[in-house]
Amino acid sequence: MNYSFRKKNKIVKYIVIHYTGMKTLKLAYKKLSDERSDVSTHYLISRNGSVFNLLCPKYKAWHAGESKWKNYKYINDYSIGIELENKGHEFGYSNYTYRQYHSLKKLINFLKKNFNILDESIVFHSDISPNRKQDPGEKFFVNKIGINRFNMSNTKRKYSINEMLCLYGFHKSYIKKYKKFCIMAVKRSLNYKYINPYLSKKFSKDFYNLLFS
Question: Of 85, 83, 64, which is closest to residue 75 (Cα–Cα)?
């Protein structure tokens, strides 16, 4: 199992939701627990809702890779990783199961209570690494776990796309360098069926409502 010790000034602030992106649960479990794989996670949830605690959250798992969120870099330092069994976009992306959502909701409520994590700090892998990752993807419905990630006060009527991307939480360097990937990540959060980087009036309205509703 790959892990590192958390530094004393690096406390858990976030939960990052992933999918495994592998053909079977067995392969995913093997990779996530193999020290030669250079990846690991704290929790793995199978399609039947079984929860595997692979690493104690007090240790740092290697699940986020190169990542940024808000003003933070290297999100592994500050996060707990949860992997959901799903073949992913490469091998046959499918809907998540009721049992997965049920187990994930219970696990997240437990972690929120024990680590003082807010709903706004439940993030997706595609949020923190939009140029590299697509998971958990457009078929993941966060409302099914009772999370309201955005509940912002509206201080003015209109916001530019860049302003909304910043409010969403993307690191400023990502907005500057990978804006189209940030837009695609937002569309996944909005559960759009077709994911592309194109802007439209509908997207702007949906994005605004996501942040301020």
Answer: 64
Nearest alpha-carbon partner for 130 in 85, 78, 193, 195: 195
- Residue 193, domain extent: 161-212
The answer on 140 and 166 residing in a single domain is no
The whole-angstrom separation of Cα 56 and Cα 133 is 25
83 catalytically annotated: yes
Which of 83, 120, 138, 163 does the annotation list as catalytic?
Answer: 83
Question: What is the phi/psi pair of residue 203, to 5°?
Answer: -60, -45
Whether residue 39 contacts residue 32, with contact meaning beta carbons closer than 8 Å, is answered with yes
**Of all residues in the chain, what percent are helix, strand and coil, respectively (each to 5)?**
40, 15, 50
pLDDT (tens digit per residue) in 12-64? 999 999 999 999 999 999 999 999 999 999 999 999 999 999 999 999 999 99
DSSP per-residue string spanning 160-203:
-HHHHHHHHT--HHHHHH-HHHHHHHHHHHTT-SS--S---HHH
CB 2 within 8 A of CB 62: yes
Distances (CA, A) of 78 to 8, 134, 153: 11, 21, 26
How far, CA to CA in Å, does 115 sit from each of 13, 118, 141, 154?
8, 9, 23, 29
Angle in degrees, CA 116, 175, 125, rounded to 5:
45
Domain boundary among 145, 173, 196: 145
